[in-house]
Amino acid sequence: MDSSTPKSPDEGLQDGFNTEDTAQLVPHKHLSGGGDVRPSGTPLAPGEFLPLQMDDAKNGGCEPGGLRIIVISAITFSTVITMALIVTIYYGPEQVLLHEAVASDNAVCSELGRDVLALGGTAVDAAVAATLCMAVVMPTQCSLGGAGYMLIRDNKEKSSAVFDFMGTAPSDSTEDMFDTDPSQATQGGLSVAVPGLLKGLKDAHSKYGKLSWKQVVTPSADLARKGINITQPLAAELSTLGDPGQYPGLAELASGTGDSWASAGDIVAWTRLADVLDRIATHGVDDFYKGSLADEVVEEVTSQGGILSKADMAQYTVKMPNALRVKFLNQTVEATPAPSGGPIVLAAMNILSNFAWSTKSANKPVSYHRIVEALKVAYSKRGYVGDPAFDSLINENIEVSMLNATHGKAVSQQISPNTSLSDLDVGPDGGLQSKLTSGTSVTVFGKQEQMVTVSVTLGGILGSRVVTPSGIVLNSLMSEFTAPAVANSVNNVAPNKRPASALAPTVTYSESKPCSRRAALGGTGGMHGLSASVEVLMRVLGFQEPIDAAIDQPRFCDEANGDGLLYESTLNSSIVQNLQTFGHSMVQVSDHLAIVNAVAKINETVDAYSDPRGGGASRIL
């Protein structure tokens, strides 16, 4: 990206007037009834005046002359018009600029978010509406019983806000509760954490929304009642769940006979979930956390061996910690803090900021080698990532060992241009060990320069596999804790604790050049989602690629866990061979590695792109 300051069209021009220059008037005869023009240089006769001199001459030069009147009038007129424009901009009707966009994993949800923007909603309004839509059209990945994070960047106000609505361990949880049977953390009643999604979306809307809560919730209720299209990704995931009869709350998603799941292309009306959304739209989220819906959730969880209580639901709170940030070239990169995966993304970018990058970097194997090495180092620090409310040293350790610029430079100097690091300074055991296999992200660029990125998850596919009679799919986020417990791990289970998670909503912008590239992105796919976010950031900021090309490019991931360097089959064979020569153990995967959605803006041009790996589509207003 060219960081030089563009020249102003007026550069080199003097301010004001040059007082040495004078207007050259051609003398002419003052006529009342016509005549010839006076020859140049002919002196005026006594009592004869040039038109623009008449007032000066007649008034003895004490009153403004004609030319002065014209100049003063022009300046006065321009000043009045300018002031009127300023007053209109700041105090008049809101100026409607068609520079807004939504990117999600489903075209219908992107359209729904766009429609909310068209109604005059904020980027947060649109993000809330599109996320609730995903809970309707892709219940195996997103649900009212899920949790996540939201990052908001207001470029106009130069401020950021984080909403942490990750699930929390029930108050009766114990550190060793999964030591005997770790599988209980992934499915069944014990795997259910207090769901934070609805409370998080409501709190964000209350603070940054413009439309009413009902206006942003009702479209999803209407969609569920009218009928949703069973997409190929949803059909594929439903087919892995076995007999639909095990899930009465999802009966509408089964075939007509009820002995198999609906097929791709089928349109099904999900009336029971529509009714739930209507209740939430009308009465708010208290019904879910304190009312009859909370009773239903707790009853279903406890009937399947869980320990979630009504008190746990009622006491759940959303947190608003500060965003974390690092510098990369002339950009600021921000992400959500621990216990999210944001510190991993920022640690890698902090290291990579010490190398030179350009459009030519995309063709050099050493570029990919450096990205892999930086990610390996970042992943090796995962043991520092846990809930800061339960360990006062977490934030300090992350700052010193992951985000500190001097530390990042020192690590970059240890990265050889042609040899893979083999002796990593690994942090403590435990920490972020994400097993996420579900999740979705929504990104929005709204008017007034507001960017929003929200990432949510259920844990596994269909979460805990616990579904309420009303069709609410409940999460399996207890699986994100270290299980079995590890001595001194910052991510061991504890009552009311948030687990470390690989979700990492991220934004980037320039503080010195606010109209240059600014973007918001979200990656899902467990630990692979973190590396995918870094790779997209590097392609956009380092290789200077547009967001669609950056997202489309093949991905790779080395979690520093001994599994080798995983890569998608479309990665350039020359790069694969060179990475192998550098000492990387290359492992080709048959499927994709993570999904990333993003929105961006350069000057007044907005762009949005949904990762084709997730089957979504973006929409621009």
Give me the secondary-structure topology.
Layout: H1 54-58, H2 66-91, E1 101-103, H3 107-118, H4 123-137, E2 147-154, E3 159-165, H5 197-208, H6 213-226, E4 228-229, H7 232-238, E5 267-268, H8 271-283, H9 286-289, H10 292-303, H11 310-315, E6 324-328, E7 331-335, H12 342-352, H13 365-380, H14 394-403, H15 405-414, E8 440-446, E9 450-457, E10 506-509, E11 518-524, H16 527-542, H17 547-552, E12 556-557, E13 565-568, H18 573-581, E14 586-589, E15 595-602, E16 605-610, E17 618-620
Parallel strand pairs: 13-14
Antiparallel strand pairs: 1-8, 1-17, 2-3, 2-9, 4-5, 6-7, 7-10, 8-9, 10-11, 11-15, 12-13, 15-16
Helix pairs in contact: 3-4, 4-5, 4-6, 6-8, 12-13, 12-14, 12-15, 12-16, 13-18
Task: Provide a brief overview of the structure.
This protein is an alpha+beta fold and 621 residues long. The chain contains 18 helices and 17 strands. Strand 12 and strand 13 form a beta hairpin.
Report on this model:
- The chain is an alpha+beta fold and 621 residues long.
- Among the domains are: 51-87; 101-211 and 318-322 and 431-620, Gamma-glutamyltranspeptidase, small (S) subunit (Glutamine Phosphoribosylpyrophosphate, subunit 1, domain 1).
- It contains 18 helices and 17 strands.
- The longest helix is centred in the first third of the chain and has 26 residues, at 66-91.
- The protein is globular, with a radius of gyration of 31 Å.
- The model is unreliable at 1-64 and 92-98 (pLDDT under 50).
